[in-house]
């Protein structure tokens, strides 16, 4: 007897497997041929108990999961618990991909469970199955879901519907909140959900002093749960006697608004926080007022789209900032609390989530590494480098190890930038010239050549090319 798991090599699945192996039963893991390295890593994560893991070749998109008939016969009657985690957890995925993974994948998993006479089918769903229900969604609710316009919401709802109406073996459903990193290590394997908002927080921290009060939004409701809580809860609730045919919310009982959560992460980042926040209703009113303006000025939408692209924020995430749904988890909490399984307060581990993201997942880490490879020990001339974009460019280049040369008109501003770079241990030379004036430009080029020789890279912010300087 044992367990069969789809999605075992995914983020939640890996933690679930590690929590299941102490029970000493075999765990059959559905894997695609290309996922064998992930399976091997999972075996290593389980230590000596990794010998309990058995790979089963197949694919969610195939009938009966693509598992061969001999393997299905060998598994028949041996699976006590079938955990179906295999799905596409991506708000931005194409609708066809979501249908194939979340709806067709669940149908194929159910057919496999029926064929092998599994003891209980466990669907790991999501709070997204409630759509944008206005109010409190309970564990007993399903058909009341509304606002299922997002394909991700709709396919998670349809997946649940399949289990509720077609499953011929005992079943249980679990709806985790937005799953974030481990509460003790902060570890997570991808940027998703609230992590998209970390880069704007980081940029604010780098641009503004921590004490500066900001104006922001109150926003809607957001429910975050750490992956270690979700895995522990799944194991306990799956084995609780007499609970077949029920649904459990794996959510934080403490309601948080988006503004609260942003401030928690801002404090973790040592960034300024929002001291005054607008009510979500006021934000809606403002949006309504802006729509006519957007219609008259299409460029506004293009600017917003470009800003989101620059920050790496999908538009679907912005749509969730005013989410209207809260979740009641009384039934799950009652069963979990008796086992000492509780959601830790978000403010107790938010700093760990931030720290792990900034050390391991921040896209800027790769950018900084690449920039250093390009400019380290190179001579870089920045025109107009005493303020604005030119100044920011010069500072970043110096941090990356370049020998920075700045030319601009204002000697006082140049002195301030020179002091900033020097304080950070950078190498900088500054020249006060108006290079838009031909005689002054010629004089500067002669001095530059005499004192520095060849310039490797020119960053021109002065509005007039002086490419002669590096020819």
- Count of DSSP strands: 19
Highest-level CATH class of the domain at 1-176: Alpha Beta
- SS content category: alpha/beta
Average residue pLDDT: 88
CA distance, first residue to last residue: 76 Å
Please report which band the strand proportion falls in: under 5%, 5-15%, 15-25%, 25-35%, 35-45% or over 45%. Answer: 15-25%
CATH fold-level assignment of the domain at 1-176? Rossmann fold
* Strand order in space, largest sheet: 3-2-1-4-5-7-12
Figure out the total of helices: 17
CATH architecture descriptor text of the domain at 1-176: 3-Layer(aba) Sandwich
Helix content: 40-55%
**What oligomerization state is this entry in?**
single chain
CATH superfamily of the domain at 1-176: NAD(P)-binding Rossmann-like Domain
The rounded Rg comes to 28 Å
Question: Major sheet: size, sense and barrel closure?
Answer: 7 strands, parallel
Short account of what is shown:
It contains 17 helices and 19 strands.
Please describe what this structure looks like.
The protein has helices spanning 11-20, 36-45, 69-75, 95-115, 151-166, 198-207, 227-238, 258-268, 280-296, 298-311, 315-319, 330-337, 346-361, 363-375, 388-399, 411-423, 438-452, and strands at residues 2-6, 27-31, 53-57, 79-84, 120-124, 135-137, 171-176, 178-180, 214-217, 221-222, 224-226, 247-250, 256-257, 274-278, 325-327, 379-383, 403-408, 427-432, 457-460. It is α/β, with parallel strands linked by helices and 471 residues long. Among the domains are: 1-176, 3-Layer(aba) Sandwich (Rossmann fold); 365-470, 3-Layer(aba) Sandwich (Rossmann fold). β17 (403-408), α16 and β18 (427-432) form a beta-alpha-beta unit. The termini are far apart.
């Amino acid at each position: 007897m044992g367990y069969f798991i789809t999605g075992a090599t995914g983020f939640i699945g890996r933690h679930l497997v590690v929590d299941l192996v102490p029970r000493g039963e075999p765990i059959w893991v559905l894997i695609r041929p290309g996922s064998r390295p992930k399976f091997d890593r999972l075996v290593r994560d389980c230590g000596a108990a990794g010998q309990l893991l058995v790979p089963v070749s197949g694919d969610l998109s195939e009938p009966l999961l693509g598992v061969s008939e001999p393997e299905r016969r060998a598994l028949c009657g041996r699976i006590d618990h079938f955990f179906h985690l295999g799905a596409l957890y991506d708000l931005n995925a194409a609708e066809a991909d979501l249908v194939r993974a979340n709806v067709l994948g669940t149908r194929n998993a159910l057919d496999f469970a029926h064929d092998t006479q599994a003891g209980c089918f466990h669907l790991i769903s999501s709070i997204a199955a409630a759509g944008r229900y206005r109010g409190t969604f309970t564990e007993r609710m399903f058909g009341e879901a509304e606002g299922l316009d997002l394909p991700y919401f709709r396919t998670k709802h349809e997946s649940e519907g399949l289990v509720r109406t077609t499953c011929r073996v005992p079943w249980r459903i679990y709806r985790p909140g937005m799953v974030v990193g481990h509460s003790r290590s902060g570890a997570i394997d991808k940027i998703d959900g609230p992590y998209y908002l970390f880069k704007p927080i980081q940029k604010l921290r780098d641009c503004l002093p921590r004490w500066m009060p900001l104006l922001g939004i109150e926003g809607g409701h957001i429910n975050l749960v750490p992956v270690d809580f979700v895995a522990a809860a799944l194991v306990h609730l799956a084995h609780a006697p007499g609970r077949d045919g029920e649904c459990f919310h794996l959510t934080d009982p403490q309601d948080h608004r988006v503004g609260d959560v942003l401030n928690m992460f801002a404090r973790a980042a040592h960034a300024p926080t929002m001291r005054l926040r607008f009510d979500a209703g006021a934000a809606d009113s403002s949006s309504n007022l802006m729509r006519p303006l957007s219609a008259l000025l299409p460029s506004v939408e293009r600017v917003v789209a470009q800003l989101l692209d620059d920050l790496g924020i999908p538009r679907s995430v912005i749509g969730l900032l005013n989410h209207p749904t809260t979740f009641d988890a009384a039934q799950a909490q009652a069963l979990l609390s008796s086992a000492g399984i509780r959601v830790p307060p978000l403010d107790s581990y938010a700093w760990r989530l931030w720290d792990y993201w900034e050390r391991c997942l921040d896209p800027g880490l790769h950018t900084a590494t690449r920039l250093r490879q390009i400019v380290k020990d190179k001579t870089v001339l920045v025109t107009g480098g005493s303020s604005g974009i030119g100044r920011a460019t010069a500072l970043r280049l110096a941090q990356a190890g370049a020998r920075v040369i700045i030319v601009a008109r204002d000697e006082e501003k140049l002195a301030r930038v020179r002091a900033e770079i020097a304080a950070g241990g950078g190498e900088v030379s500054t020249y006060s010239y108006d290079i838009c004036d031909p005689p002054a430009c010629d004089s500067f080029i002669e001095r530059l050549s005499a004192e520095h020789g060849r310039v490797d890279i020119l960053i021109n912010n002065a509005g007039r090319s002086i490419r002669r300087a590096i020819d």
